[in-house]
Design a protein that fits this description.
15 strands, alpha/beta
Length: 381
């Protein structure tokens, strides 16, 4: 069915949304019909993208979300926390057969959207692709890139190590605090999803945070959404072998830094359980606020993947600039362009970036300046 727009960017007046709109304005080209959407026409017009249509829509209004979904081939959403604002748009895209992308790092939201909309989206042809930014494209595609350079049909193990210098925006902070405060509900949603997912026959996939160990620095367990995303790609793609394990780590250079990161994360999780403390923290950094261009210009990330199997060893590095915002905007925009215009796999339902786009998206990101490179050698005995 012909749609009015190839891509609609929902939430473009927010901090990351504005960066994504600016990126699309630079690279989309005249052949891409795209539009901005959000609840405040004035804020969207103030972005200054002349000639780009504006759709007024409210994340909490299912009918306006349905209207956005009916007009687009692909909708990319930057409106979080997604648990608070994301559900109606996912439902609308599943109904309309419209491909959907977002930036969520909220495991509970992803699991609940699977339970509510995966089966319906498989029937309408909609791809529902979550975590299309720094959560979790570098890891999902970095592991895919590594696995495709290891032997086929053998057990594979991949360890991922993340290092970064980055800042935090208000929207990201609010999403994280929402997730920290809902650990019980998150566990319930995860159990419900495991019960609903079909069993994986004849293969085994394991993923999770790594263990603390010295690796030319210190590698901390990193319980983000990223291992879950990698594990779901491994469940869906036979190329990951009969027995696949992924372990995810956050790497720092010194033991004091490792202890500081662990203590800070633990304190935030503890404070998120106390409503007065949570409210006070959320008031410190409001949605729409974020690092300045000068600060973002100094930021960087590197994700290193050590893959072993069948006597082979491959080390992949995925690296780029400011991870949370500039590169996240790039990743989301390129993923939207990839779904709209590239020859991608014929899959539907809730799927990962590796399953939905795979190599075409890797090539787009490399052309856009994000580095994927490997070196090979014999596995350690």
């Amino acid at each position: 069915m012909e749609r009015a727009y190839d891509i609609v960017l929902f939430g473009a007046s927010g901090f990351t949304g504005a960066l994504t709109a600016a990126y699309l304005s630079r690279v989309a080209g005249t052949g891409c019909r795209w539009a901005l959407a959000g609840r405040d026409r004035g804020k969207l017009a103030a972005l200054g993208h002349e000639g780009v249509p504006i759709l007024v829509a409210d994340a909490t209004d299912p009918e306006s979300m349905a209207e956005v979904a009916r007009q687009a081939r692909v909708v990319a959403s930057t409106v979080g926390p997604y648990l608070s604002y994301g559900g109606p748009l996912v439902a609308a895209c599943a109904d309309a057969g419209t491909h959907y992308l977002d930036l969520t790092g909220e495991p509970e939201f992803v699991d609940r959207m699977y339970l509510l909309h995966h089966e319906h989206a498989t029937k309408t042809g909609a791809k529902l692709v979550h975590s299309c930014g720094f959560d979790s494209i570098p890891y999902d595609l970095g592991v895919l890139y590594t696995v495709r350079r290891l032997p086929q049909g053998v057990p594979l193990t991949v360890d991922g190590f993340v290092t970064a210098d980055a800042g935090v925006s208000g929207g990201t902070f609010h999403s994280a605090m929402t997730a920290f405060a809902r650990h019980r509900q998150m566990a319930e949603a995860a159990r419900a999803r495991r019960a609903a997912e079909p069993p994986l026959m004849g293969r085994r996939v394991r993923s999770g945070p790594g263990r603390l160990r010295n690796v030319g620095g210190w590698a901390l367990p990193f319980p983000s959404i990223d291992p879950q995303v990698v594990g779901r790609s491994a469940r869906a793609l036979d190329r990951y072998g009969p027995d696949f394990t992924y372990r995810h780590h956050y790497a720092v250079r010194s033991l004091p830094a490792a202890l500081g990161v662990a203590a800070g994360a633990g304190a935030l999780v503890a404070l998120a359980q106390l409503p007065p403390a949570r409210s006070w923290l959320l008031d410190r950094l409001r949605p729409g606020q974020g690092p300045s261009p000068e600060r973002r210009a100094r930021h960087w990330f590197k994700a290193t993947f050590v893959g072993e199997g069948g006597g082979a060893r491959v080390i992949t590095e995925v690296s780029g600039g400011d991870p949370g915002y500039d590169e996240t905007a790039k990743m989301l925009a390129e993923a939207a362009l990839c779904l709209a215009f590239d020859d991608v796999p014929e899959v539907a339902g809730q799927v990962t970036t590796a399953v939905a786009m795979g190599e075409p998206l890797i090539e787009r990101l490399r052309a856009a300046g994000i580095s994927f490179r490997t070196r090979e050698g014999t596995a350690a005995p």
